[in-house]
Structure prediction request, 236 residues.
Amino acid sequence: MLIEAVTVFPEYFEPLRLSLIGKAIESGLIDVRIHDLRDFTHDRHRTVDDTPYGGGAGMVMKPEPWGEVLDDIASRVQTIELQPQPTLIFTTPAGTPFAQSAADELATHEHIVFACGRYEGIDQRVIEWARAHFDVREYSLGDYVLNGGEVAALAMSEAIVRLIPGVIGNPESLIEESHAATSDGLLEYPVYTKPATWRGLDVPEVLLSGHHGEVAKWRRARSEALTAERRPDLLP
Ligand code: 6GU
Prediction:
């Protein structure tokens, strides 16, 4: 998979070089290319924003640098890519909420580009124009406002990349975790490890019993209770 990102803060993406994603880059499972939007400006101040038509607070990202960087990315698309068009994700608090189902689907894509908006957003014509050349998505990380899309793009990248076969050592750990399509949409049960008693607190007896059926029942009950308490919206 090729992951690209367009940003005015390329340094935000350095953490991708760490940990499991860093290993996936080193092993060649994924490739990451970060583009500085200001490299596609032509004025002395490398201007990427301007005041909004119609008035109002804040600044809007100018269309010209976005057009140039997306032209550049589109011009490098290899005809050998199986995907007809790269997927272009605009990160915005006005987007569709990003969920595990989106990560599952995107993990099968060959080429994903994140367009990280800042300020009040990107001139809408960039998004309209891009639909001719990219499979365009607009995703939000959740119902709160960030200063820009970089942290959202990092979070989405991690959620996607860890699903690529070979990135996570033990694929079974993907199966039972919260929000996995295979766990009935319930939150994950609490987990414990040794020692059996720590600071006066005991591991629930059933987990030490060796009765696999009882352990499964206990975990299911804990999952249902947690989900009812914290995320009743997830219950069937
Ligand atoms: Cl994707 N971007 C910004 N700026 N704020 C957000 C977000 C994205 N998702 C939630 N809040």
Summary: The mean pLDDT is 94.
